[in-house]
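Table S7 (text form). Paired inputs.
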Amino acid sequence: MAVDHQAAVTAPSLLTALPDTVVVADARGRIAYVNPHVRVLLGYEPAAVVGQPLEVLMPARFRRGHDADYSRFLSTGEGELAGRTTQLPALHADGHEVTVDVTLAMVPPPPGAGPEEAGVVAVLRDASTTILLERQLMVSRYLGATLRVTAALTEAPDADVAFRDLLPTLCTELDWDTATLWQPDEHTGRLVHAGTWTAPGEQPGALDEASRRHRFARGEGLPGLTWAHRAPVVVTDLWNDPRFVRTDAARADGIRTGVAFPVVRGDHLLAVCELFSREERPVPAELSDVLAHAGRQIGQFLGRLRAESEVRQLADTLQRSLLPSHLPAIRGVELAARYRPGGETGIVGGDTYDVMPLPDGRWMVLIADVCGTGAEAAAVTALTRHTARAAASPAAETSAGPADVLRAVNTALLRAQTDGPLRFVTACCLVLSPGPGCVCATVGVAGHPRPVLSGPDGPHEIGVAGRPLGITEDLDVPVVEVELPPGTTLVLYTDGVTEARDDTGAQFGEEGLLRVLRTAPPGAEAAVEAITAAVEERLRTSRYQADDLAVLALAVP
């Protein structure tokens, strides 16, 4: 080659000082010059590579067809690498690969010379810093997306809703086209299809249909492999990878790449999520790591939601067992009741009420409030209710009155008392005697809010407040006789009504209850509805936790 490439680049001292590796190749693709920085970047001595073909700096998989591409570039000035900087692997002297940014430029032949006098200048720069920054940005973006996924799931009221929202949130945040969710079937021990998400405006296609038909065992198909490995599994080419069982469906929908990751809580698999792309796209290790972490985080969250849901269901079942399933029909008396647990919805409240017939045609009416909440309070509530029923049942030796029922409950509570916290009970017991034109009530109160009788003359409290139950054996229960003429309503309630506080801390109070009853329409249902609505309105913007609430009303039309 006649052209002096040292002269073509000129100022060799300048090239020597450059922090990049500069390689000059002749028309035959042989290295004519390389600056000393090649030692730092690729570990070669300049003299060892001068005269060698450019392929010596390339990994073997890139060498095939290089000569033809090089010749075409020299003749046309066009090529995949022309005019831009591209990241490529280069071969280090010790055999490992180094990712470099490559910029190419053609050195035209001198005036009057033929194309055989042309050459190429390549500038190679270490891309590790750029790659590291890009990976850091990528990881940051992925982590931000999974944090937004978790934040979105925290708004779900239960695990079922959270699972339903998981797929669209994941696809939207991580930019995938469609997704499927698989959950283990406790009966078959296989993964079954639990849901498919597609972009808005699109309908589920062949992949969704195929997924609904499949049941994957551990290690089978993409979901089963993910289950077996307990780690994300990537299938870059769904159309040609034998590990993916639903190949025909993926082809029909034009879906090329998939990645699946497990949602786990400890050693327990909750679900497998599959994400799919219509483009064949690489799945970097950083994304797999983030998905693995997200699967554990989401699993812990969903597991907690599921446990809380189970606790709420158990609490609801237990609470229902402490209340009558329905109110009986009493001739000449209209009944209505409301119950609402306070505090956390998963906690069993300590309030209860009951209405039961007595053997002589009378009726016992009970409302009680146990100190505290939770399992121990529920046990005391059950003891209170069932003891009262036993004391008033046909098997009792004498016809029970309110004082008899309350003293029986007091004795049972004292016998059941343990070394734990004192579980006292406040209660109000009535015995109703319906009669022609009037209903008589015998009222006994044990430390409980006194009932309110509302009629044409306005509401007022009745009864005498005695001591709570479960504190002392020497219990005196004052009893009063009250007539309930037509047009009157008798309201029994727990302190969750009067102690409800607004945001300033002001309680609803007895006066608030009387005020509501002064304007409430006649009837038991109307009274109960007015009271509970007023209490809910007071609590609506309050910072204070609500207590259990029970209201039981008896009206004589």
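Next pair, protein 2 of 2.
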Amino acid sequence: MAESEKGFNAMTSMIAGTAGHVDHGKTALIRALTGIDTDRLEEEKRRGISIDIGFAHLDLGPVRVAFVDVPGHERFVKNMLAGVGGIDAVLLVVAANESVRPQTREHFDICRLLGVRRGIVALTKSDLVESGHLELVRMEVEQLVAGSFLEGAPVVAVSSVTGSGLEELKQALRDLCSELPGRDTTGSFRLPVDRSFSLRGFGTVVTGTLIEGAISTGAEIEAQPGGRRLRVRGIETHGRAVGQAGAGERVALNVTGAEAALLRRGQVLLEPDRFETTREIACELHLLASARELKQGAPVHFHAGTAQTEARVRLVAPPEAVPPGAAASVRMRLASPLLVLPGDRFIIRQFSPVVTIGGGMVLDTAPPRLGRVAMAKRLDALRAADPIGRASIFLAAAPYGMSLRQLAARSGLPLAQAAHAGELFSISEPWLIGRDRLRALLEALETAVAAFHETLPLSPGMGVEPLRIQLAPKAPRGLLRALVERTETLQIEQEFVRQTGHRMTLSRDQAQAVERMEAAAENAGLQALPFEALAAASGLAPAPARQLIEMALRDGRLVRIAPELILGRMTLARLEKLVQSHAGENFSIAKFKTWTGVSRKYAVPLLEYLDRRKLTRRQGDERQVIARQPPIG
């Protein structure tokens, strides 16, 4: 790998994938354009056909084209599929002496299903036919691409032997590259692996098309499936070492952390702890007109990016089969876990004969268990939504929302974009709630507090934790406080949630009952009264009496020294003054009984209370009275 350069390559670049029937001259054309032979395997050179994908690049003045050369033979279409993911444009190759053939159509269908939007048609081996025949082939090609993304695209007759048409093709590539929109490199780094090998002096090298984000030397990355952690030692694009590469570039990464044999085609390199693999997806499927009807439970070969696995189709909505040429919402159960995200394209191929029958777009990588009608409605909404709209739908299904990082992972969006899908809260971590869910939660919160006040009007409010358990038991603990802050009618005071205008007002009978309880507590002196005795003194029924006792305890008019023992406020003040008169002294329980005249039944809870108040300190079987510091000045 060459010496490193800093930053992105300033040259405009495009990744073009070849497509076409076997032996139509794809590899020869790339060699004629670039001088690079993409057939790197010994068997490819011996048989004269491409078996695996190959790579080359071409500088055209202000632009650079990276070619992904794919095999045309029907037996190697799965390798072709590993190469065309992430391309900007297709170079559809049709041999002038054979015209459109079966793999021409299949490769063209694959490009359409993968959402390729630009391309050029190259009529190779033009030196082998007369001009009249060449025009006939041109007409057949135009008929093939009519109504597609290639309608009106340049059709260039070339010869890899004589060089005829190569300059015209280079100009068409130059023009096409200049028309491409710039790639967004702000997303999360994602690189589907198409090759891994060991290079003497460097170690493990992996290659692929960087479909999203950017990568820099020194970065820590992760390979999924598997979760193996790697570190990037070096980056190479188009044969040159660089310090950084961005979306839309062919890259080779020199990595540490794994031998080449442990990394394989189909894995995806990405930011650590960013995304999770899945074995079930919900998606939009388009069946080719040339395919047989697709029945419920049909097994298929599933291809996404450079990965492939087997899958079983589950139709979401009736009928029980998808007719040729139709679109449908389906779920797919994957035989192996894959790293795919909403918006990713995929291809399915039939089991026997093994031909491409359709493809589509991933809508959800963690579809919920819903009935057919509800699932169909959900997928219709996901299909119609933009990426942020899809994230909003995922968020709406979460009763208490989800963390910003979780939503970004679920939707595939960068954190900054995912934040627009709902209402953002700053708690232990950034947290999002769907807007409709938020309104419902706020209404439920206000209703619960209002009902609590109606039931317990003498309470200062509902406890924060009991309210959280009632309304949002699985929500993070800080969320309830954040929700209360979003309301204009509620507030938190001393761990209680209350209505802003709530005031505890005692009736005349209630006020007299409290006075009777205070008097009873003071008359009892240090022989603290239990709840039942105070309730009896109030003259009220036990339930309302207990509410008044709790209120008096909160207001400090009564004091709890043990779970069921209560003192009068003035009695306690006299006890504290008595104890302070012995400041610095050590004393036993017996001496305390002499000071106060109480039995052990009351002495022990009184002393434990004084310990909690830090008026006394236990030292073995005795205690010491702690002298309080006099106020300054």
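The longest helix spans residues 435-455.
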